[in-house]
């Protein structure tokens, strides 16, 4: 690991100012330290925000939840309201990393995890995300874990977070504070970017922006699940995952929000399929049409062709599970 | 003081960029281990203000003003922490390398978390145990027996190094502070096949701290093989310490020695190497074609890349197939996997005050490494000392000399101690793997299921170097075929050089690969015949009156020292039918059951020898020296039990040292299931000789018949007459008598061990995910010297088998580069991935192995993958013939409705 300067920020303002000046923010550090050891990232200055006062979980005026950016993944997963009202989030967190990692990993940091694309991690390979303009070795390479939605000629990586997929299905927003103290909130949907021709720019964050919290509105459906298909039972990044939030009324689907992991550069969402479900009585035929629609524009990259069929099957299974009874 | 480790203030400050793990170790606290350095394995787990974290992923600065607690700080008032005690009682480790981190994780779990171990032990990997013993520790189950004089053999005595392992004080290879130490790092080839045109060292040498750079021009131009066997001629001398041709991605190109690891790494990066890229070939079938790039020119170019071809036939398969009512033919293949022992390869070399050279290393074969090092560097054998202390796992991966040579050479040239520790990535790209093999099986049978012909064709990808290539190929054509009685058998196989990472020794050693194929094929044949897996095996499996024969009719030294294959099959059938195990999970799952058997000779066909030395000590206890390595296989414990049992004493009364070329007699190495049958035999012979020495001396000085004397715990007895051993020792030594003994053991003749695996599993019809519901395993390993350890070895082998079958896979791109050289992407089984396996022993007593025992550490793995494939076929009607069975390879062939 390259030597770095380390500062523990005394305030959000100090952290944001340092970040605006080029320092890299370290929260839990579970992903960053790994990337630094491999020299995928080589920051010269780190500013530590872990002891700033951002680790509260509070209910909001409208009955939603405000989750401080430094809330540990383990604490979030175990939080009573999360477990009872947002089980999709709790399940997604527990489907992820080990206890040791969750004890350190923060909410904000989880959102900002970097892709686990083999080629991004291997500094001997070109990668547009790591070194803009150097090329993408994944295209035409080993693509078993890569995107089927929204990829570009410059990058076909996927976003690794389970938590973000669940938050996407919960219509979460990201609260951001900049170096001048301005606070804004951004829908998670528009927080993340598709790779396009700038895959190194992954989010809407500007230099000096700090994530201070994630805000979830009141749950729109009580039937929630996070279904993750992976190579083994213990832990592995998703081959595909489905976060589903459904509300039924009189045997019809009254609300549906669905987000998909392991398939795109960001948690994937498709408004059209949610619209298709609204007001309909559940049926296998409906679910198949919904899945067909979702996957109409999916594009395989070779080894990952299986994801199209696998996501189709998994989505149908999740919809069946969430609408039964 | 702002840094506190285990309640002790630490005066030094972290270096810029230092992680907590190395900061703790720099403070001399070696209980914190490195398994991956990437937050995957958990061996470095410590508490930060009471919360378990991976110290490798934590900047050391973050520990400022916080309490760091390691496994060495858990004891309270001189008493073990309850979790440390529980790990002792359950013997929740084998090599012990993971225990330090595992204990820290478990000790921080609350009651709710303890009830959900699959989720809460995600962050700690164990490669040895299969996790059952760890689960037992969490639940306070004791597995050890009391140490009773004369009853050591057959008792579940704890590992003699237990205390050190659970407190973090046991010293593994890298757990020593060495003054004036230099660090070695290696630049590895990014190309699968390239000639090195030039290496510009100037920038590397300009880096502060870099001391020396070694390239192919600096090493002895002597060919050798890194594989270790007694007979060095079975492995081709086809490599140099450093070569000017790289034949696989990851091959050593140059070594940089520096004052710090970071400087050595920076030096490697600063080397400017000009390569002439050569055409490469990765597939062994392509490598055999005319015009394929040739890897080695050794004067036998006519054979191209075929390193060796082995063939044989007994009877006549052509006529056998002609008389068959049913013929089955199919190709099955197994994947390339890595041992992933949690302690990576590494060595420390120095010149001692005695003027001699010393190499502290992580090896299964210190004596063969000693020979190779003497040869390579022209060292007089007496001037070199090679030894191990605690070794963190091997599984065949350390039957290889891959770190000792460069360390020793550097210390010889620079005069200072030199250390080289592999990273986890190097472990994947620069060590060895299991040989990938593709096996075509053709079986013919009469309508009643009787085999009429068995034909096997194996292509083994031995990679860039041929070490273990011939022996694994021979093994693949050996015991798996002799498992079945059939008049007509034929096999041929090629081990082929390609530009892949070299294959090496790996638990099961070649036989695993063809067992997979043959055992799947037997079920496929049974399906065609309308028989079940038990019936076809009972009809054809080798019986105690049969000749043990593969495809060579020449005399063999293998015979039935005992026979329990039939009993194993009965045990598995009964266990699968007993209704235990888990029900299928809720949802859309298909359920199926499968079995497979495996047969393995106890020991390799090549020469193997071992020696023991024992002496009585003045305090009436014994010292035992034996050359074999302990790497989690339990031999150090079983050896002292064998000795104690013969000497009528307690295990604890025998102090043991092992695997040290200065302090123990010669041993070929601990591999090929020889720890019990060869080294254990040497111990038994030595103990018997010392026993006879002691009782005959007592008889002589009392002028009584020797037959009247016997040894008890701490005395010799003749009726009521008793002479304390301390007294006898005093009398004897004053009179010039020596109470010591040395004996040697050789492998031949060899006995044969049997295993049967049974699996009931569920496969998800939508996603292809597999869940093992019931796993049972029966083994005929003769008399278990230490039943708890034998159970643990079998559980560990079965768990490794599940990894091979379901989750482990080395992924390569089209240029021969491994894409997943990290434990997060190369999935060895975690707790949640490892089903509990019920282990059963056939009740046999071997007439060849020591005290009735035979081989046990390897063979269990061989039956697992085919049993899983057979269960999948049973559940789905589809034969999955290629490892591993990951969801994406399965779901596609399943219908979502039952």
From TrEMBL, chain A:
SMART domains: CO_deh_flav_C. It comes from the Bacteria. One of its GO terms (molecular function) is FAD binding. Residues 1-221 form the FAD-binding PCMH-type domain. Pfam families: CO_deh_flav_C (PF03450), FAD_binding_5 (PF00941). PROSITE patterns: FAD_PCMH. Keywords: FAD, Flavoprotein. InterPro entries: CO_DH_flav_C, CO_DH_flav_C_dom_sf, Diverse_Substr_Oxidored, FAD-bd_PCMH, FAD-bd_PCMH-like_sf, FAD-bd_PCMH_sub1, FAD-bd_PCMH_sub2, Mopterin_DH_FAD-bd. Gene3D superfamilies: 3.30.465.10, CO dehydrogenase flavoprotein, C-terminal domain, Uridine Diphospho-n-acetylenolpyruvylglucosamine Reductase, domain 2. This is Xanthine dehydrogenase family protein subunit M. It comes from Oryzicola mucosus.
TrEMBL record, chain B:
The keyword NADP does not apply. GO terms for molecular function: 2 iron, 2 sulfur cluster binding; iron ion binding; oxidoreductase activity. InterPro entries: 2Fe-2S-bd, 2Fe-2S-bd_dom_sf, 2Fe-2S_ferredoxin-like_sf, 2Fe-2S_ferredoxin-type, 2Fe2S_fd_BS, Ald_Oxase/Xan_DH_a/b, Ald_Oxase/Xan_DH_a/b_sf, Ald_Oxase/xanthine_DH-like. Residues 1-74 form the 2Fe-2S ferredoxin-type domain. Keywords: Iron, Metal-binding, Molybdenum, Oxidoreductase. PANTHER family: ALDEHYDE OXIDASE 1-RELATED, XANTHINE DEHYDROGENASE. Belongs to the xanthine dehydrogenase family. This is Molybdopterin-dependent oxidoreductase.
